[in-house]
Amino acid sequence: MEGLEQILRRHQFFADAGEDHLRLVAGCARNHRFDAGEYLCRETEPANEFFLIRHGKVALEMAAPGQPPITFATIGPGEIVGASWLIPPYRWNFDARAMELTRAIGIDAACLRGKCEADHDLGYEMMKRFLPVLVNRLHATRLQILDVYGKR
Amino acid sequence: MASAETSAAALVDPFTPQIYRVGRVHRELSDTVTLELSPLSGARPDFDPGQFNMLYAFGVGEVAISMSGDRAVPGVFVHTVRDVGAVSGAIARLEAGATLGLRGPFGTGWPVAAAQGADVVIVAGGLGLAPLRPAIYEVLANRSRYGRVVILFGSRSPHDLLYRREIEQWRQRLDIDIVVTVDHADADWHGNVGVVPALIPRAPFDPHEAVALVCGPEVMMRFTIAALSDAGVRPDRIFLSMERNMKCAIGLCGHCQFGPTFVCKDGPVMRYDRIAGIFAAREI
Amino acid sequence: MACASLQALMDALAASKYEILGPRVRDGAIVYDKIADVSELPAGWTERQEAGRYRLERRDDTALFGFSVGPHSWKRFLHPPIETLWTARHGKAGLEVEAPDEPTPKFAFIGVRACEIHAIAIQDRVFLEGPYPDRGYRLRRQDAFIVAVNCGQAGATCFCVSMQTGPKVESGFDLALTELLDHGRHEFLVEIGSDAGAELLAKIPHRPAADDELAAAEAVVARTAAQMGRRLETDGLKELLQGNLNHPRWDQVAERCLSCGNCTMVCPTCFCTTVEDHSDLTGQSAERVRKWDSCFSLDFSYIHGGSVRKTARSRYRQWMTHKLASWIDQFGTSGCVGCGRCITWCPVGIDITEEAAALRAAPRTKRETHGGP
């Protein structure tokens, strides 16, 4: 457990987090290793975890019939994969595939949701950290949709 | 208004085109070619990376195209041209041996010499890599004079990656970092997917010691500059290349005005802090 | 000098091979055109000008210069509306380009007003003091002989006093005339402004001015200065315009502005041009022609994909902000000389002095406005 707390403290997502909160989160955490080509999660599966990427690269993809899956974003070290655990019905909306050997920390969703309900300070802290990630992702997605490099 | 860097005055009449012959033509993308142009008589004028020429297609018109070649290679101007209209289309369709008119070099260049001693971050979007390539050549030729050198390059899709072979060669070097990303991936792409500004927080340079050179569509430049500023790069160390309608390219026709600046003579390379106010405004 | 000496002046200029240009009545206006005889001047004519209005009216005297300024300015000669820059041909070795080799006429301008002298000086700065001087302009300008006239009356749209460009002619002329028409006399006080002016005056009948004549001339100028029809407060005007890019006033003026570009055509300092490339039917020869252009046209700011200034709002803002603010950054002075032509010749009567006053009355409005196409 202590090892995990150290790792969490060093990860960008939990930068400047309080010791108590880190300990609480670490209680829901476990190590993961994904080989190249392995999936972290699959669309429609229950979103039981979210991942803090430590090393490696993850492709977020959507599958469509008759064609190979389309990658719409790639996530690297210091970033996170997964926000669906926060929102009912707690289901993954995409596939996440390790593009190379990837090490990540998985945080158990039910465990963390329970602790956030019990300790609203922890809950607020988690929201404060997730929201910027989502806003920035939304902004980036909008830029991608704008097709700024396309011919008009 | 002072300008970023100015070259030696053009040695020839700036009003009348000189005649150049098309040498090699290289197809880069489905709608983009690179032409090597050599003068019919006289020497190729020296130029600063970031400057542009007005290329004249007989009977059609002129268009402003930045140099995209190595200044150290004598005898040719290298121009990468995308077919987006009547004139650029006519130029892009020229074959080896054809002649065209050329006026230039005009405008201000990238602060390549002034950036010595600093980290250099080069951020290119789409065809914006073309006006930056001469600066990249010059930095690489004097590599030891710079700190960290980082090139961030974003394109629409893997099919639209300009100078792909060359980028792959640069990547082999151990002394520069190149990160490439695309907005839209296909099944064969195993690189980054996402927008260029998102690459900046994790790019390996010291923002407090960096000079940034940015070129691409204005939307991309706007958000790239925001990301650079958020990371701590000073606004007087961010340089961008502006684009406006050009007719005379010598500050007399009024078309290229951008607020109080003329993009043809106060630009195209501009220091961000000098235009920050009007850059944020609409329809200036 | 007497009225008759004016003819002698024109004859002397003609003898020195000058192309003489001056005011004459044509098409219901006083325009600048070739003149050879004093009888061609608009004797006894004046103008009644207001925002969006210009009418000629008969005077009750025979003043030769009893009007202010019409739709023409001297820029139509120094910076002509159409000019061929070069021609190109498909020769043996490929493309060949040739610059035209026409002789430049020597212009003599008769009746140049103080505001117009300032306008010429402003265009001198644009065309001659940049990194690439315009050689055609330089050739036309260097030999131009200027016979200025001190205005005897101001128009209702004049505001040269606000812009400190008149009504008195201070410099930049070869000879300056003040018309003295009262108590049965009709004469001109002549001031020498250059060696060329002195040389020409020596050839025509004249006599030294008496003190009362000097006083009369000063009285003419003072009377004109007191008659200004408009005022423009120039203190802090540059900061006012550059700091109010999103003021709602721009939306209001945009609703009236037709983007017709009249203001830019009649303005004596507007200098924007475009180029057209023509080729003949055989495709063997082509030419590049430079023409006056206006920032009000939609295509003026076109880059691939569309125009940067799509809305009339942005284009009116560009013109006014350039004229009164950015021009100072670019060339060191205001671009406006207070001649009032833009007010007179605007079909809907938009008044640049009124727009500036409206912005000044309620500045620094931060509200963002979205102009639609």
Features:
heterotrimer, A: 152 residues, alpha+beta, Jelly Rolls, 4-stranded antiparallel β-sheet, 36% helix, 30% strand, C: 373 residues, 6-stranded mixed β-sheet, 14 strands, disordered C terminus
Overall description:
The complex is a heterotrimer of chains A (152), B (284) and C (373). Chain A contains 4 helices and 8 strands; from the N terminus they run ααββββββββαα. With 152 residues, chain A is α+β, with helices and mostly antiparallel strands. Chain A has a single domain (2-146), classed as Jelly Rolls (Sandwich), CATH 2.60.120. In chain A, strands 1-8-3-6 form a 4-stranded antiparallel sheet. Chain A has a 4-stranded antiparallel sheet with strand order 2-7-4-5, with no helix packed on it. The longest helix of chain A has 27 residues, at 120-146. Chain B is α/β, with parallel strands linked by helices and 284 residues long. Chain B has 2 domains: 18-106, Translation factors (Elongation Factor Tu (Ef-tu), domain 3), CATH 2.40.30; 119-241, 3-Layer(aba) Sandwich (Rossmann fold), CATH 3.40.50.80. Chain B has helices at 86-92, 129-141, 164-172, 218-231, 272-279, and strands at 18-29, 32-39, 52-57, 61-66, 77-82, 99-106, 119-125, 149-155, 177-182, 192-193, 210-215, 238-241, 257-258, 261-262, 269-271. A 7-stranded mixed sheet of chain B has the order 10-9-8-7-11-12-15, sandwiched between helices. Chain B has a 6-stranded antiparallel sheet with strand order 4-3-6-1-2-5. Chain B has a two-stranded antiparallel sheet with strand order 13-14. In chain B, helix 2 links the parallel strand 7 (119-125) and strand 8. The longest helix of chain B is centred in the last third of the chain and has 14 residues, at 218-231. Chain B starts with 17 loop residues before the first strand and ends in a 5-residue tail after the last helix. Chain C is α+β, with helices and mostly antiparallel strands and 373 residues long. Chain C is built from 13 helices and 14 strands. Chain C has helices at 3-15, 75-78, 114-128, 135-142, 160-163, 195-202, 211-226, 237-242, 249-256, 262-266, 312-331, 341-345, 352-361, and strands spanning 19-26, 29-34, 45-50, 53-58, 82-91, 94-98, 107-112, 145-150, 175-182, 185-192, 273-279, 285-292, 302-303, 306-307. The longest helix of chain C has 20 residues, at 312-331. Chain C is globular. The model of chain C is unreliable at 367-373 (pLDDT under 50). Chains in contact: A-B, B-C. Chains B and C meet through strand 1 and strand 6 of B and strand 5, strand 6, strand 11, strand 13 and helix 11 of C.
